[in-house]
What we know:
Blueprint: E1 4-9, H1 16-33, E2 40-46, E3 52-53, E4 59-60, E5 64-65, E6 74-77, H2 88-97, E7 103-106, H3 110-116, E8 124-125, H4 132-138, E9 143-144, E10 150-153, E11 156-159, H5 164-177, H6 179-189, H7 204-207, H8 214-225, H9 233-240, H10 244-255, H11 259-277, H12 282-288, H13 294-305, H14 309-321
Pfam families: DJ-1_PfpI, HTH_18
Protein name: GlxA family transcriptional regulator
Keywords: Transcription, Transcription regulation
Amino acid sequence: MAYRTVLVVLFDGVQSLDVTGPVEVFTGADTYAGEPGATYRIHTASLDGAPVRTSSGLTVVPDHALAEAPAPHTLLVPGGRGTRGPDPRVIDWLREHGPRADRLVSVCTGAILLAEAGLLDGRRVTTHWAYCDRLARDHPAIEVDPDPIYVRDGHVATSAGVTAGIDLALALVEEDLGRDAALSVARYLVVFLRRPGNQAQFSAQLSAQTARREPLRQVQHWITEHPGDDLCVESLAARARLSPRHFARAFQSETGMTPGRYVDTVRLEHARRLLEDTTDGVEQIARASGYGTPEAMRRAFIRTLGAPPAEYRRRFHTTQTS
């Protein structure tokens, strides 16, 4: 089995998890193969080979200076505070060497560096949600999609903030080595295999704030774990041992969402995952997700996603195989 060289570009102010997350995934693939370096050989490089200080204060010692780094199959550019006003020499290096890589990958705001180097023009990309508007404004030749956790466009792959880099790396391992390899790595790292790329950056749990009071946090967790149950305000209030009126007011105050909107978001997210990851029928998924009837789920999908469930599933699998 031929190995793939992965080169990670380092710079002061890099986000440490943008580096270590994907690196752990690629290194884990070697563990699956049973031989170090059999599948991926990881190299890190800074501009002059000097140690870099990450945004969290950790110091990382690179393997090489960029000028001496091996030619990569996969060139990975992480994000972090250092992407704001980067060293022009890093951009120049990316502009010269980026087109030679078989695969260009960015994590979080690493997309900004690729964009500055002109490597994303004409492509659909994503980045951390907080920087999507800036990326689109500064680089009008790029189509910026703020919703997915990662986007593939030809040999270019971009991902959203921090942990989305792990999802993207798992997707690349699955592409290179197969699902069993990616599943083995995911299990070892105790992460999901894998959140699909078109999953929204804001899940229900991220869209809403976590409630301060324990009874309300328990209700949030219950809703997520039991989307098919009776989740009316009265039932949820009883679980929190509050009156319905007090519960509804407290839930919205502490989470920023009404109980009904939170339930709707959880149910839609649950139904999407079942459509993406199973072959269950729409009627079965509607019941499991708490919609009751396929028509109720159909209305929710059209209202929120602009497509009925069957069409959503078809588009998802077309995207995954293209």
